[in-house]
Structure formats: C-alpha cells, structure tokens
C-alpha cells in the first residue's frame, strides 16, 4: 500500500551559546550544530527508504543563548556578550543550520519559544516580553523572510512572556515550552512535570495538545504520562562543573529527532542524537 508521508521534528534547546566550560564554548557549539545537521540528514535518508519525508518542523525550545546577567558571577563564565550571542554567533549558527535543513527538506516550519537565560537582567527588572531568545528568533525570521520554503512562529505580545506555543502537523500536536515553568529538584523533577503537564492538558492551556517538548534540565528523557509523551531535550554542552558539584549530574550533548505521521497523529520514530564526534 501507499504509505503516509511523515514529518521530521527537530528539537533544539540549551545551546547556552556564549557559555564556557572546560570542554565547551561558542566555537564548539557551532561545530556540534553542524554535526547535528549531518546526522539529521543521515537519519532522514533511513526513513526515506521506507516512506516520503519532505517536510521538517524545527522546534527551538529556549536557552539558545547563555545570557550575561542571569546569576551572580555569570560574567566570568562566558566568551561573548549579549550583542555577540544574539547578533553575531547566534544569528550565524541558526541561519546556517536552517539553510542546511532547507537543503535536506522541501519545506521547513519553525516554532520558537523563549528560555530563562534569554531574560535581560534579574527577574522583574524589565517588561516580561523582553527576552534575548525571542530577539534572536525574530532576527532570524526577519533575515529569512524572503525564503518562501520556510515559515516561523515566534510567540509575542505586548506585556506578556508568551512562554509556550502549540506546534501542529496534521492530526498531531505538541506543546512547546522551555521548562523553567517547572521547579527543579536537584535533578529531573518527575513529580513537577507530571503535575504541570496534566494541569495544562486538563484545561489550564485552552489549546488541545498530545505531547510536550521541553528542555531546561539538560537531561534527555522520554516520559510517558498515560497517553501523553513528554520529550525532555538534552543540552549541547558536554560538561558543567556546577552541575557536577552541586547536582552530581553530567551527560553527553544530545538532542531529540522525531518522525511524525500527520495523518495518524502520532510519533512513529524517535532518535536521541549524540553530538559528540
């Protein structure tokens, strides 16, 4: 029988662009995004041996940048200021990645939500919509507005954080968040995720959704909540001395790549992509 075409869903979060650790900086972030695009190409070709995959949906889930004043002492842990994180390195990395996606797929859709590291200043210091993650997403959208094969959703609205978006592909939908809405508990907050996701699905979020995509905790996981799946994305950084000391937590740089059947409304394949060479 003729098989349904599918959509590649690419999750991107927690690049922390500008952050410096013993094995991570802005140059390494750029290299790992190139590795990611190459692995997306390879895995898409595997899927195409069985069915058509001509569209990609890229979900940027926040903390694309590291920020400069999120916590005391952050200025000593970055290799670039906010201008360079957004206007130079972030712009270049994101546009090069999206052009690679346009080389692999006929059409590309982008859903972009903010992270807490995009906040400018300390909590409550500025208008809630002021977020450098959003600035980067809007900049990339403006620079690519002449490309007819790509479309963007960057939630915004005066005076609000606009912290989530619902991505849709046919009969399938997923709520996209960063994850800082869920309080940490020295590791993955299993109870917090369960409580918040079920509350949102029960009507706190008016739009209907099947799954949830999120980042923030730098730990990759796939969490089943009855008939709903939460895909917790990893980070691009390869180590974090704060997490090592305080949380006893460490992991390889990983991001989720999913394949969705829009007609049947479900994820058919999921790859946790390791970005170490």
Task: Explain this structure.
By secondary structure, the chain is α/β, with parallel strands linked by helices. Helix content is 29%, strand content 24%. It is built from five helices and eleven strands. The chain has helices spanning 26-48, 82-104, 132-143, 190-204, 241-247, and strands at residues 6-12, 53-60, 107-112, 150-153, 165-169, 172-176, 211-214, 221-225, 228-232, 254-261, 266-274. The strands form two sheets. Strands 4-3-2-1-10-11 form a six-stranded mixed β-sheet. Strands 5-6-7-9-8 form a five-stranded mixed β-sheet, with helices on one face. Helix 1 links the parallel strand 1 and strand 2. Helix 2 (82-104) packs across helix 3. It is globular and about 60 Å long.
Low-confidence stretches: none
* Helix fraction by DSSP (H/I, runs of at least 4): 25-40%
Number of helices: 5
Q: What spatial form do the alpha-carbon principal axes imply? A: globular
What is the spatial order of strands in the main beta sheet? 4-3-2-1-10-11
Mean pLDDT: 93
The main β sheet shows up as: 6 strands, mixed
Q: What is the CA-CA span between the terminal residues?
A: 39 Å
| Structural class based on helices, strands and sheet pairing | alpha/beta
Q: Strand tally, please? A: 11
Q: Oligomeric status of the shown chains?
A: single chain
Order of helices and strands: EHEHEHEEEHEEEHEE
CA radius of gyration is 18 Å
What proportion strand?
15-25%
Describe the structure using short key phrases.
single chain, alpha/beta, 277 residues
């Amino acid at each position: 029988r003729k098989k349904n075409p599918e959509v590649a869903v690419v999750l991107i979060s927690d690049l922390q662009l500008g952050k410096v650790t013993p094995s991570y900086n802005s140059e390494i972030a750029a290299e790992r995004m190139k590795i990611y695009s190459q692995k997306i190409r390879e895995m898409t070709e595997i899927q195409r041996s069985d069915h058509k995959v001509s569209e990609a949906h890229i979900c940027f889930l926040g903390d694309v940048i590291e920020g400069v004043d999120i916590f005391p002492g952050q200025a000593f842990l970055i290799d670039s200021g906010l201008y360079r994180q957004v206007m130079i390195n972030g712009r270049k990395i994101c546009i090069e990645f999206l052009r690679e996606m346009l080389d692999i797929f006929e059409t590309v859709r982008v859903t972009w939500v903010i992270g807490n590291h995009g906040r400018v200043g300390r909590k409550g210091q500025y208008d809630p919509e002021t977020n450098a993650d959003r600035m980067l997403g809007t900049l990339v959208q403006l620079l690519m507005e002449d490309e007819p094969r790509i479309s963007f959703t960057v939630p915004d609205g005066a005076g609000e954080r606009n912290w989530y978006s619902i991505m849709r592909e046919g009969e399938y939908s997923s709520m996209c968040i960063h994850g800082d809405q869920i309080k940490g508990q020295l590791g993955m907050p299993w109870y917090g995720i369960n409580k918040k996701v079920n509350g949102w699905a029960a009507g706190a979020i008016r739009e209907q959704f099947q799954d949830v995509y999120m980042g923030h905790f730098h730990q990759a996981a796939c969490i089943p909540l009855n008939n709903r799946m939460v895909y917790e994305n990893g980070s691009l950084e390869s180590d974090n001395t704060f997490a090592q000391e305080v949380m006893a937590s460490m992991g390889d740089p990983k991001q989720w790549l999913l394949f969705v059947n829009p007609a049947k409304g479900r994820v058919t394949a999921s790859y946790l992509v390791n970005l170490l060479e």
